[in-house]
Amino acid sequence: MALVVQKYGGSSVENATRVKRVAERIVQTRKAGNDVVVVVSAMGDTTDELLDLAGEVSPQPDPRELDMLVTAGERISMSVLAMAINDLGYQARSFTGSQAGMLTTAAHGDARIVDVTPGRVQAALDEGYIVIVAGFQGVSPDTKDITSLGRGGSDVTAVAMAAALKADVCEIYSDVDGVYTADPRIVPDAQKLDDISFEEMLELAASGAKILYLRSVEYARRYGIPLHVRSSYSNKPGTIVSGNLEDIPMEQALISGVAHDRSEAKLTVTRVPDHPGAAAQIFEIIAEAEIDIDMIVQNVSTAGNGHTDISFTLPKTDGDKAVKQLRKKQEKVGFEKVIYDENVGKLSLVGAGMRSHPGVTATFCQALADADVNIEIISTSEIRISVVCRDSDLNTAVKAVHDAFELGGEEEAVVYAGTGR
Ligand code: ASP
Ligand code: MG
């Protein structure tokens, strides 16, 4: 008997009909002779709606109470799913994250898993139950408070459960057939990948691909749990995420895909004194505000006069905080001003084959030039090239790069559901 962990995203259980459909799929897996643990997200856009509600009630909701609120979304989906399974003649039992042993840090809204103690899950499995676990949530052993794992966190719950239970497979069900060469909502001829390495998937997820949550891929790689990404609306084979970069032959698959991200802003600090320690002071201010930054460039635009500009990208949600903290220390650091720009988008090209193909950057930049897209920042890793451009150019840029690397195919990608919210 194999142990299968299945995770269903919000659009897979967006209404009663879908819940019943998913229940049937779970029962089929069970009938095939497997033990099944299901991790479920909140129905449809419930989490967004709960956050909107909180925002209407309070301008700055208390983080503890906000977690009590948003974790309710998964409590609804887990219980109705268990009911639907029971009606099909199988026994199911739902557990909150806390009951399932998801122990986390106390950081509300962005808690990290510190341990998983799935005693009750294991006991229920041993008694023959199908187990449903609420995704995206846990409990802090320090504060005893309920926490949430950050948006999209149900994937992490699934991978952590799979690791703790030593599951044979971790299947991630969503509203598309797998991992695509680009977001099919923007690039209609995007192709589904049959498989992809953990590293490439990490780069795609970190670059804005929403199909898998970055932390779940990190977790899966650390514990060596292959992920099977597939659709709950079809029976197609999906994408297997597994294996390491070292195992991919250098010559193979030049590019795996293009990702884009609209969640970041660009911040520029101008006329920073060009002496040792100035950059350190700036990034110290950002670090103290607990802001994660990404692409950094130090320009030589004003070379020769002892000053330089520094730009970087950061989540739009942290923009106000960053600007405020930097302006406070302006005199001390000695820069001229802070320019904050939210109208930017980020595009990334990811592929293991880049390591051994020198022409990739040239083709990439030429594609953007032909599409009349201006590049504002460029950064690279071993298997990724990213640029920042105008937000209004982003869709055009994604299509242009996807075309230039001939990633498209005959088959039209299907987006079965979801609002993409
Ligand atoms: N329901 C949560 C969210 O929308 C968690 C998840 O979907 O994975 O972010
Ligand atoms: Mg969701």
UniProtKB/TrEMBL annotation:
Q: Which InterPro entries match?
A: AceGlu_kinase-like_sf, ACT-like_dom_sf, ACT_Aspartokinase, ACT_dom, AKii-LysC-BS, Asp/Glu/Uridylate_kinase, Asp_kin_monofn, Asp_kinase
Keywords, A to Z, come to:
Amino-acid biosynthesis, ATP-binding, Diaminopimelate biosynthesis, Kinase, Lysine biosynthesis, Nucleotide-binding, Transferase
Question: Which family, according to UniProt?
Answer: Belongs to the aspartokinase family.
What is the purpose of this protein? Catalyzes the phosphorylation of the beta-carboxyl group of aspartic acid with ATP to yield 4-phospho-L-aspartate, which is involved in the branched biosynthetic pathway leading to the biosynthesis of amino acids lysine, threonine, isoleucine and methionine.
* Name of protein: Aspartokinase
One short Pfam name that applies is ACT_9
Reactions performed catalytically? L-aspartate + ATP = 4-phospho-L-aspartate + ADP
Q: What EC class does the entry list?
A: transferase
- The UniProt record lists the ACT domain at 267-352
Extract the Gene3D superfamilies matched here: Acetylglutamate kinase-like, VC0802-like
> What is its pathway?
Amino-acid biosynthesis; L-lysine biosynthesis via DAP pathway; (S)-tetrahydrodipicolinate from L-aspartate: step 1/4; Amino-acid biosynthesis; L-threonine biosynthesis; L-threonine from L-aspartate: step 1/5; Amino-acid biosynthesis; L-methionine biosynthesis via de novo pathway; L-homoserine from L-aspartate: step 1/3
Which species is this UniProt entry from?
Salininema proteolyticum
| PROSITE patterns per the UniProt record, alphabetical | ACT, ASPARTOKINASE
**Which SUPFAM superfamilies does the entry link to?**
ACT-like (SSF55021), Carbamate kinase-like (SSF53633)
User: Which EC numbers characterise this protein's activity in its record?
Assistant: 2.7.2.4
Single annotated GO MF: aspartate kinase activity
